[in-house]
Amino acid sequence: MLMRSLLDVLVASPLVPRKVRRALLRMSGVSIDTSAVMPRCHFGGPDISIGKRSFVNRGCVFDNSGSIEIGERVMVGMEVMFATSTHVLGSSEQRALEVTSAPIVVGDGCWIGSRATVLSGVTIGEGCVVGAGSLVREDCEPNSLYAGVPARRIKALD
48, 85, 93, 152: least buried by Cβ within 10 Å? Predict the structure, then answer.
């Protein structure tokens, strides 16, 4: 537990060079093929993969109750949240019951705008663009633009 906490602090530090950050993430079990992960990101566990030539900007959160797979050449904006966990909905006495989780998959070539939130069980198809501040709660078709709260398909992209 202490080792995991220490790795979290070092990985998030702006003083740590990119290549060292990648090495620390690999040491913690994250499968990462890029050194373009910026500081102040939180990785909730090791069941994460980030593909070649992908970029993860500052302050992103990977809630790793379920697996998170980021493809190749994916651009992730600042403060994007990947929330793999949720709660079973209960009665009015207690709405949030036991925790459940489902994986998140982001296909190759996607662009996820700043402060977007991707919820558990979502697959974002290859070549998608998700607008800044969007809430993605359902799967996204490949090569499409999604935006809004909740995110809706705006148009197909060439």
Answer: 93
